[in-house]
Design brief:
mainly alpha, 70% helix, DNA-binding, HTH_TetR, TetR/AcrR family transcriptional regulator, Tetracycline Repressor, domain 2, elongated
């Protein structure tokens, strides 16, 4: 017996309701955008190209997005979520030792950048100069990385000596340094080996974090 089918009026189609199917189509469009924007670029992309890559018609594009910029925002969120998640996973592998957590976070971050060139292209290049809404998203994402840094370093910081606003300012500077290193690394015609890049970023973070002191027992 065949699986249940549904049309767009709200009935089930192959066991999935219309909302689930819409979300599945949206995910396919975002994945297609990551592929297209991350390989040939945002400015040369067309809705037709995105839909062709996703295997969907333009009707379904406009079901989820009101234009290419909205899709760029979704693709940007997708790739930066991956980067941030990799940072937190990498830090977690270091246990309670701050230096190990920092090196683990940096290693995971730079390996994610190296392993999928689409990610840095979208995160560091294609979102620049698009418009105010994308600029605002860039700032929000940067702040989310600041939050991730605070998660990484929090257990080892003397909170009585360094108030939250001071730690956030330091974390903002560290995020800016790492993102700039990553951006210049992927744009370089003769990029350094990844181990060297990680080591350089680690030197910067260690120099700053070494001033914070251990958390009192």
């Amino acid at each position: 017996m065949s699986s249940p089918r549904l049309d767009d009026t709200g009935r089930t189609y192959r066991g999935a309701g219309p909302r689930q199917r819409q979300e599945e189509r949206r995910v396919r469009l975002v994945d297609a955008a990551v592929e297209v924007f991350g390989t040939s670029g945002y400015r040369s992309a067309t809705v037709e190209k995105i839909c062709s890559t996703a295997g969907l018609t333009k009707r379904y594009f406009y079901e989820s997005f009101d234009g290419s910029e909205a899709l760029l925002l979704a693709a940007y969120t997708s790739v930066t979520d991956r980067l941030r998640d990799s940072v937190l996973r990498g830090a977690g592998d270091g246990g309670a030792d701050l230096d190990a957590r920092v090196r683990g976070a940096l290693t995971a971050f730079f390996r994610s950048v190296a392993d999928d060139p689409r990610i840095p292209r979208i995160a560091f290049q294609e979102v620049l100069g698009v418009g105010p809404e994308v600029d605002n998203a860039y700032r929000r994402v940067t702040l989310s990385f600041v939050d991730a840094v605070l998660v990484v370093i929090g257990p080892a910081v003397d909170r009585t000596a360094f108030p939250d606003f001071h730690l956030r300012t330091l974390a903002t500077g560290l995020v800016g340094a790492v993102l700039m290193i990553a951006q210049q690394w992927v744009l370089s015609e003769n990029p350094q080996p990844i181990e060297s890049v990680i080591g350089s970023a680690h030197t910067i973070l260690s120099a700053v974090l070494g001033q914070l002191g251990p958390q009192p027992m």
